[in-house]
Design a protein that fits this description.
With 347 residues, the protein is α/β, with parallel strands linked by helices. It has one domain: Glucose Oxidase, domain 1. The protein has 10 helices and 15 strands. The strands form 4 sheets. A 9-stranded mixed sheet has the order 1-15-13-7-9-11-12-4-14, sandwiched between helices. Strands 2-3 form a two-stranded antiparallel ribbon. Helix 1 runs antiparallel to helix 2, helix 1 crosses helix 8 and helix 3 runs parallel beside helix 9. It starts with a helix and ends with a strand.
Length: 347
C-alpha cells in the first residue's frame, strides 16, 4: 500500500505528542478530515501544551551534531548547490517583489525602538554630497529582520549545544549572523492561510497547524520540500489597514509550537511570517514564543519576522504561482544575533 508524504507527516507529529491532550484533539481533527468534514476545521486558539511536552519536542527535533559538532549555520546546510540551481530555474518572468516593510521611524506601542535616520550635507572638494547615519534595534514586532541562531537559548544552551557564555556585549563568539554571509538563495513558497480559509485575514490568537499547511498543499498542488524558505501569511497588515493596530504581543495569529515537528520532518531551511511566526498566546506553559525557541535552538533554523507578504500573496493568487526564487542576505556583522533584511521574491 502506498502511503502519502502527508500521511507520514501526521504520523510523525502524533508519535511525539502521544498521550497528551494535544494528541487526542489532533487525532480528532484528522478523523473529521478523513470523513470529509474539512469545513469544520477552522483555525482555533492554540492547543495547551505542558512544559514537559515542550522539552520532549526540543529533544525530538534536535539537529545538534547533524552537520558536525562545530556547525554554526544549521538548516542553511539544506540549501545545496543543486537546490540553488533549481530555485534559479523558477525565474521565468523577471518579476521581483520586496518582502520588507519600510524602515519604521515612528515610535508606537509596537515600535518602542524606531529606526533612527539622520542625514547630513557637506562638501567633498568641489562636490556637494549627502550622507546618512542609521541606527536600529531591529528585534521585536515592527522591523523586517532575520533572527540568527544566537537569538534564543534553551536551558543555558544555544543551537548545537553552544553555551550562552559564548554571548557577550561584544557579540556572539559562536553562531553569529556573519556565518550566513553566503545569503539565502533557494526556493521560496508562500502559504496564504487567509486565502485558504476564504477570509481577508486571520483573527488575533488564531493558531496555524501542520494540518492547515497540508490542506493548502492539497488545494494548490504545491508541496513544501527540503531546503525551502516557507513563508506563512496571516494577513496581519490587511487587518491593520482594516481595523488599526491592536495588542499584537498579547494576541496574534501565528503558528502553533507543534509545527516545529513538521518543519523537522520536511527539512525546511527557513521559516518566515508577516508576524513573528509564533501564535500568541502560545498555549505552551510559561512561554511567549515557544516556536522561536524550538526552531532556533533545536533545529538551528533562522526565522524571518515582520515580513510584508501582501503583494506577494496578490501576485500568487492572480497567477497561481506559489513558488519562486527567494533571495535574501543579512548584514555581515561579526557576532550579530540577527540582521535587518529586505528579502526578495523573484518569478
Amino acid at each position: 500500500m502506498k502511503v502519502s508524504r502527508r500521511a507520514l507527516d501526521f504520523s510523525f507529529i502524533i508519535s511525539r505528542v502521544e498521550g497528551t491532550e494535544f494528541a487526542i484533539k489532533f487525532r480528532w481533527l484528522i478523523g473529521f478530515t478523513v470523513f470529509g468534514f474539512s469545513a469544520l476545521l477552522t483555525a482555533q486558539p492554540a492547543e495547551q501544551v505542558s512544559r514537559a511536552t515542550f522539552d520532549q519536542w526540543m529533544q525530538d527535533i534536535s539537529n545538534w551534531g547533524r552537520w558536525g559538532d562545530d556547525d554554526e549555520i544549521g538548516t542553511l546546510n539544506l540549501i545545496t548547490r543543486q537546490k540553488r540551481v533549481h530555485a534559479a530555474s523558477l525565474v521565468t518572468e523577471g518579476r521581483s517583489i520586496s518582502l520588507s516593510l519600510f524602515a519604521d521611524k515612528e515610535e508606537r506601542p509596537l515600535n518602542g525602538n524606531p529606526f533612527k535616520h539622520s542625514l547630513s550635507v557637506s562638501r567633498f572638494g568641489e562636490h556637494e554630497v549627502a550622507g546618512d547615519e542609521y541606527s536600529v534595534q531591529y528585534h521585536g514586532f515592527a522591523h523586517t529582520h532575520m533572527d540568527g541562531l544566537p537569538h534564543f537559548a534553551h536551558k543555558g544552551q544555544m543551537y548545537n549545544g553552544f553555551p550562552v557564555s559564548e554571548l557577550s556585549q561584544d557579540g556572539a563568539n559562536r553562531l553569529g549572523i556573519h556565518n550566513a554571509f553566503e545569503g539565502i538563495f533557494t526556493r521560496g513558497v508562500i502559504v496564504d492561510i487567509p486565502w485558504l480559509k476564504g477570509v481577508d485575514y486571520l483573527e488575533p490568537g488564531t493558531a496555524i497547524t501542520a494540518q492547515d499547511i497540508e490542506r493548502w498543499e492539497d488545494r494548490t498542488g504545491v508541496e513544501i520540500e527540503s531546503g525551502d524558505v516557507l513563508l506563512i501569511r496571516t494577513g496581519r497588515w490587511a487587518r491593520v489597514r482594516d481595523r488599526g493596530e491592536w495588542n499584537f504581543v498579547g494576541n496574534a495569529a501565528g503558528s502553533h509550537a507543534s509545527l516545529a515537528l513538521w518543519l523537522k520532518n520536511r527539512d525546511v531551511a527557513v521559516i518566515g511570517s508577516d508576524g513573528v511566526s509564533d501564535v500568541m498566546p502560545s498555549g505552551v506553559e510559561g512561554l511567549i514564543n515557544p516556536l522561536h525557541e524550538l526552531v532556533l535552538v533545536g533545529l538551528g533554523m533562522p526565522l524571518l519576522d515582520n515580513l510584508d507578504l501582501d503583494e506577494l500573496a496578490k501576485f500568487a493568487q492572480k497567477t497561481n504561482k506559489w513558488e519562486f526564487l527567494f533571495v535574501g542576505a543579512p548584514l555581515r556583522v561579526r557576532g550579530g544575533t540577527g540582521s535587518p533584511m529586505n528579502p526578495i521574491a523573484v518569478f
